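To close the chapter, one final illustration. This time we ask the reader to focus less on the individual chains and more on the assembly as a whole: which components sit near each other, and how the overall shape emerges from the parts.
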Amino acid sequence: MTAPIIEVDGLTKSYGGKRGINEVSFDVAEGEVFGFLGPNGAGKTTTIRLLMALIRADGGRARIAALDCWEKALEIKRLIGYVPGEPALDRNLTGGQILEYFANLRGGVDRAYLKKLIERLDLDTGRKFRQYSTGNKRKVVLIQAFMHRPRLLILDEPTSGLDPLNQQEFDGMVKEARDEGRTVFLSSHVLSEVEKTCTRVGIIREGRLVKVGGIHELMDIKRYEITIAFAKPVPADAFARLEGVVEVEALSNGSAVRLAIQGAADAVIKEAAQYPVVSLTSYEPSLEDIFLRYYERDDQAPKEAARV
Amino acid sequence: MFRSIYLKSFRDYRVPILGWGLGLGALMAVVFAAIPTVFATPAAKAAVVSIGASYAWIAEPIKIDTAGGYATWKYGITILVVVIWPLLAGTGMLRGEEDRGSMDVLLSLPRGRVRIALEKVAAMWTALLAMGLVIGLLTFAGAAKVSSDLGLGAALAFGLNLALICAVFLSIALLISQFTQERRTASGVTAGILVVAIVVDMVHRVVPNTVWLSQFSPIYYYNLSKPLVPGYGANLGAMLVLLALSGLFAAAAVWLFARRDVGGVSLHLPERSSQPARALPQSDWSLRSVYSRSLGMIATSTLWWTLAIAGFAAWMVIIVKQTEASLKSLLQGSPAMADFLKLGGSDSATNASILSAFFIFMPVLLMAFAVTQANRWSADEEDGLLEIVLSTPQPRLRVLLGRFAALATATIFISVLTLVATTVASAATGLALDYGHLAAASLSIVPFGLLVAAIGYLFAGWLRAAVDTGLLSFLLVIWFFISFVGPGLNLPDATQKLSPFYYYGSPLLHGIQVVDLLVIVAVGAVALALASARFVRKDISV
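The assembled structure is written out below.
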């Protein structure tokens, strides 16, 4: 892993008595696309707003490019392109005026590249912001985040409201940024989006980071399912005792079993071989399944972030 | 409370009902509580009568030497403040929901548009009645301590009359919002109509035989009822006119709402070509910096305020010249007018001294403008408009000061145009004035506007936009009382120094009082420094 561009250590923020985030720690390496997953209200936006120095941490530390996010906010913002979760812009300006304004606030941008982005996302720059559809509003915000080719993109649910065609275009833009060695911090609850674009993910829940890892590492801790159909009924209990079997369900009057397995399937295969097997089907878990596992039961949630 | 749109909407208004009702009711109770002091001696009572006569053009003094008469007169000056909340609520009722996108959800329910709008209007009227009831009860409680002849019925009728005038401007705001794309625009236009209505009502008290003109103003009908004044009572006909007006405007608004696009307007202007554009604007001055963008944002409202303030100042010059002879004889023969002239810093009834007395209202107007701009600053943060701006490499301090500098430019523009307008009016009418002093009087209003804006920015560090605006408005009213009514009540000098108007002095007669002006500049600078210190450290809310 190359040097981290984002370093978050024990970051804590509360809103009065209400929960924000608690002791969140993670690093994001330069050049990676990091997915930040969590349900609504988990603390994704709070973490991002702390990174953006829009709010001040109660405890812990957040650094970007080795600079303290609060103390060196100005220097950091030169490096960042930002898409907020609920973007609000001047409703009376046209899309073109908004982009021109933010380009000026950034001290100027490559206009040819800006025009390319406008064409790429097919934005009508002549309409006022208030006249845009949700998707077009999102396009304006996306373009302003990408237009200065920032070293780090912090995107809070960036594709919300975009149609599939533009989502695909967005995926392409993220991949291009990654290929150019830029870093993307992408908060989302659209798992397929994260699965497609991210190299590592962090999962946040109720203000605590419950998992950080490479996307493939997370897939490796999978709990997968196998359904085995037999020519005659078999004792399901025989499978329940096997190593790695988490759940057993008898189907078709005992002529089939559905097994949830954690780890190797060797013992299951050997046990099944003792009976006449008709078919065997294995289901790969999606990130969706992994994600849901971390949220399905409160009492099973790890207290500390686990690294895999 | 969530069983119907009516109940839900009524629930939404519970804080304003209590806040505005208790605030305005408490103000009335305080006015009554002060009466024993105000009427302590026959001489003091006579002074109050004199002051009332001086301000007859703002609020008609009827039996001002009675508790009810005095309270009615004093409260009459605050009509502008009373109507602010209903005005804002009226524009937010439908247009505000459309702005937030919640109207789409509401209209997905199996209920007709007319019914939804009517339930909301009914909830608002109920809220106003509740507010009137709270004000009426507090008025009764306050009056009971100083006057036994003021009954509960009179106090409640007073509250009802207030609720009715509020309902009229609420309905006007609702109607205007059917024609504007944004709530904010509707609020601005309705506020303009309110100011015009107040001025039109004033006309018949200043210019003889102009009652017919004042009858076009709803404020005229509000003032016809004075339930607290012994023997005057409520004017049922006038109250019915107010009821009819509010019903008419609300019905028109609901009718239009039922027929237009959600998020659209009732009157469509021709749209530009539907050909999609890919171009970026070239050399648009207003997009170059936070300052220039802020200036662009307030340009339209500044032009309207300039028209109002400069127009008002020029009108005063013309009035003074046209009524020169009659005003002089009136002023020389009236001890009350002598007190009025003292406000302008003179004992003699010259044209300049009369105009100087009128000119003390100039800072008030500019401060009212500043209140609206301070509101916009806190509202922008609330609406999330600062979020992306602050994600750019712009220091927070520059963002705040850029906005403030734009406001300062606007106030300077207003004051310079006021100077031009008064100079032209003076030259055109032949009214001899010291132009140096006229410049001093016009330009020295700037620090007063900036003072209010700085305090508004400071409050915005902690308070939400509605509370910030409410607090600033009340502050303005309190200062107004201290400076314009205080001298007649023999308020201690130390108290009068608490009001910024004290430091305006009489520049039209004596030029700029540098030390006094520096006090305002210093307090404004401290407020701005504190506001800046708070803003650079605070959590940006969404």
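The interface with chain B takes residues 49, 52-56, 74-75, 77-78, 80, 82, 84, 86-92, 94, 96-97, 99-102, 104-107, 111, 114-115, 118-119, 123-127, 130, 141, 144 of chain A (CB under 8 Å). The CA atoms of residues 224 and 284 of chain A lie 6 Å apart. With these observations in hand, you are ready for the problems at the end of the chapter.
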